[in-house]
Design goal:
The complex is a heterodimer. By secondary structure, chain A is mostly beta strands. In chain A, 0% of the residues lie in helices and 54% in strands. By secondary structure, chain B is mainly beta. Chain B is globular, with a radius of gyration of 13 Å. Classes of the chains: A mainly beta, B mainly beta. The interface between A and B is medium-sized, with 21 and 22 residues.
């Protein structure tokens, strides 16, 4: 069975600095998708970024980018120029082409002014 | 475009009571799912559906029933609530298994 591991329960960053959140996963599949979701105090789950496993190029969305290492089964999220509004829980998630979405346990990100 | 909607936002139940959590989407998505979120455990899949009339169990299905009579609606039923079902429940939908899932705002359930 596939698993997703987020080994950092909490992280903190100074405003305007860069922070990287880690995620590793275990799978025997070759075709799958990886996601980072943000959950602010409102509890709404917001998609931050998505990566298809067949794409070698790392996905980027404005200040958010990923470092996708398929062989190492690693999918880290980099947040550049951190803002106070980035403070939230961040969940890494895995989905194979024919299966359900599996979440990690989350990383709580604090942003200090 | 409302996206994924859930009602109620918050509910208190007594042990043994039954209730239905409502979920609706207006994006014509085939795939819908229910998750529960507990502290320190991330989101866990309860039940999912790949289309009207088709449902299947997820990781933690015990104590919950679902049905999918229309594409738009995917209600989650608690037949006899237990304190262990105190959680935040999220409904999600996507255009297919390969597509991004979009989440509703969540329902916070407290079972006394």
């Amino acid at each position: 069975a596939q698993t997703v591991t987020q080994s950092q329960p909490e992280m903190s960053v100074q405003e305007a600095e860069t922070v990287t959140l880690s995620c590793t996963y275990d799978t025997s599949e070759s075709d799958y998708y990886l996601f980072w979701y943000k959950q602010p105090p409102s509890r709404q789950m917001i998609l931050v970024i998505r990566q298809e496993a067949y794409k070698q190029q790392n996905a980027t969305e404005n200040r958010f980018s990923v470092n996708f290492q398929k062989a190492a089964k690693s999918f880290s999220l980099k947040i550049s120029d951190s803002q106070l509004g980035d403070a939230a829980m961040y969940f890494c998630a895995y989905r194979s082409a024919t299966d359900k979405l599996i979440f990690g346990t989350g990383t709580r990100l604090q942003v200090f002014p | 475009n409302a996206g994924v909607t859930q009602t109620p936002k918050f509910q208190v139940l007594k042990t043994g009571q039954s209730m239905t959590l409502q979920c609706a989407q207006d994006m014509n998505h085939e795939y819908m799912s229910w998750y529960r979120q507990d502290p320190g455990m991330g989101l866990r899949l309860i039940h999912y559906s790949v289309g009207a009339g088709i449902t299947d169990q997820g990781e933690v299905p015990n104590g919950y029933n679902v049905s999918r009579s229309t594409t738009e609606d995917f209600p989650l039923r608690l037949l006899s609530a237990a304190p262990s079902q105190t959680s935040v429940y999220f409904c999600a939908s996507s255009g297919g298994l390969k597509e991004t899932q979009y989440f509703g705002p969540g329902t916070r359930l407290l079972v006394l």
